[in-house]
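Worked Example 4.2. Consider the chain below.
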Amino acid sequence: MQPYFFPYIGHFSLIAAVDEWVVFDVSQYTPKTWMNRNRILHPATGWQYVTVPLSNSSISIKTFDAKILDLKDARVNILGKLTHYKKKARYYQAVTALVNETFDNAADNSLVGLNVCGLKAVCRYLDIPFNYRICSELNLTLPENLRPGDWSLEICSAMGATGYINPASGREIFDPAAFANRGISLSFAVAKEFVYHTATYQFESNLSILDVLMWNPPSVVADAVRNGLVVESVGHG
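Applying the procedure from the previous section yields the following structure tokens:
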């Protein structure tokens, strides 16, 4: 999966469901995606973005080349947007500590590095194993001009994987027969909705994990993560 910025709870359910996680950072970077922004509650109504501005946001770069414009400013801006939770959300201090931990451990203004630090911090907080490798550091020999549905097949094959799970929303880009021909099982995962109380705010579904953690003890979130997917194996016809 691409390295997302404090993604929604279903992303962590997928992490919990697999033996190994590959941070997919070798394809063309796509601006205005979940890689450098996510959503939290707005202090008045609805939701708002929290964003990490980049110095080189462009389709002309690879994801591993994406650089944060200013780590310090990004941290200040995100923490500022979280302050409206302070007097209402029980776990505000714990969440801001996770954000600070993430930025403290980020290095070289790398967006991938920051996002991996965020995943690690949340998984540690929830006691969810996060066994990951970063694709650009694996020195894999992959074919040129891969189609969107072929990347995972080639990476799984190169790494000797026997199974692959993808969110069901991407089902249409995969060829089950191609996976079967390589001896790799293909499964799709549907994330269950996790509904929780948000004090005087109206609940918004599928916000950043930051919002989930504001309102719920880690044990409750961890349980929702571990039981948050319906996984369907598919045949190849």
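The longest strand covers residues 185-191. Residues 9-140+149-233 form one domain. Compare this with Example 4.1 before moving on.
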